[in-house]
Design goal:
Elements lengths: L2 E5 L2 E4 L4 E8 L6 E8 L6 E6 L7 E2 L7 E6 L4 E6 L8 E9 L12 E2 L3 E6 L1
Parallel strand pairs: 2-11
Antiparallel strand pairs: 1-3, 3-8, 4-5, 4-9, 5-6, 7-8, 9-10, 9-11
């Protein structure tokens, strides 16, 4: 089991940018597929972006394609989510997730360890 801690959330105006970070500890980071999810009081937790443990092209939700970028640093045991051109509908609690050798890095079922979340609020 890996422990995850997110940071970088906050309040930003529409059109602005934020970068979320998630530091992992307690596991071999390079063996985990990593993902970002988000949740609002009105919706279930939804997939935002994912990276397979072995590398390759990331996967994104259609709603964030072209605006968000997921990346990882296997030396720093950190996964990032760069969020540009933010919209009010991006407002949510964002969660980092890890899946051990997971090939399903594009859905909730592929992840088993979760962070506590960080709030992102986009004002119009």
């Amino acid at each position: 089991q890996v422990r995850l801690r997110e940071s970088g959330g906050g309040l930003v105006q529409a059109g602005g940018s934020l970068r979320l970070s998630c530091v992992a500890s307690g596991g071999t980071f390079s063996t985990y597929s990593m993902g970002w999810f988000r949740q609002t009081p009105e919706k279930e937790r939804e997939f935002v972006a994912g990276l397979k443990w072995s590398g390759g092209s990331p996967n994104y939700a259609d709603s964030v394609k072209g605006r968000f970028t997921i990346s990882r640093d296997n030396i720093e045991n950190t996964v990032y989510l760069q969020m540009n051109s933010l919209k009010p509908e991006d407002t949510a609690v964002y969660y980092c997730a890890a899946g051990y050798y997971s090939s399903r890095y594009y859905s909730r079922e592929g992840f088993h360890d979760w962070g506590q979340g960080t709030q992102v609020t986009v004002s119009s």
